[in-house]
Amino acid sequence: MLKIAWSPKYAHPLPFGHRFPMEKYDLLPEQLLYEGTITRENLFEPEALEAKWILNTHHTGYVDKLTSLNLSKSEIRKTGFPLSQSLVDREIHIMHGSVQACLFALEYGIAMNIAGGTHHAFSNRGEGFCLLNDIAISANYLIQNGLASKILAVDLDVHQGNGTAEIFQDVSAVFTFSMHGASNYPLQKEKSDLDVGLPDKVGDEFYISTLKSHLAPLLDQVEPDFIIYQCGVDVLATDKLGRLGLSINGCKERDRIVLNAAFRHEIPIMCCMGGGYSEKIGHIVEAHANTYRLAQEIFF
């Protein structure tokens, strides 16, 4: 059964009208339920992740300042969010959603978090709409509990997974692969184990051929026993922050390649949603929904 983390907390932590499109976190499960791709049984509501698993990845000083709402104005500005207790609570629930989804993936082959993909959070700070890094926290949870020994983080959001790269820069058990817009945020890139920077405006054909040429050799090289997939849909041509040129079908084919690879190699995979900033919310929801449709098609 496809298990999916979702909580009412995901969509309602910010003042109305904030530019970050929180509404997708309500609209996506509604669409999937309406069309019959999932039922209520597929959804699970995460709790607050135990603090020790956050501190296993993030510096104590940063976590203390974050949870006590004592970040400086500069630190808050870098996150892109107005800091509040509800926002911090949301982030901690997202972390548990991804960790629990990893455990479900070990059982069912795949599981997903409707939020997550917070790859700009560093070990000691937040950036770019990310306060804590669910990719890193989940990977460290699996390793620390002996549930995985080699994890491949596949980050196909349009923005480099700079926080994830920093956290795992000296960790051999996690291989970080980021394929992103070369000239997009962040201006100062970190060094992933493999970075593939794409020029502006690339379309479906170039993107898909580039992904295929890198993913298959990586699976042979890394030999992962778990994959964490950041599948942001800000690669779309319609995305306000993306600068790439993928169609919705091209984005779907991207997901098909990754999910098929995990299925064929019998590697458990946890998918977290990442970014999406198209002017029309329907484009965001449709592109994200395709990932869930493919999960059902391929794995179940």
UniProtKB/TrEMBL annotation:
Keywords: Hydrolase. CDD domains: HDAC_classIV. Pfam families: Hist_deacetyl. InterPro entries: HDAC_classIV (IPR044150), HDACs (IPR000286), His_deacetylse_dom (IPR023801), His_deacetylse_dom_sf (IPR037138), Ureohydrolase_dom_sf (IPR023696). It comes from the Bacteria. Residues 18-288 form the Histone deacetylase domain. Belongs to the histone deacetylase family. This is Histone deacetylase. It comes from Echinicola arenosa.
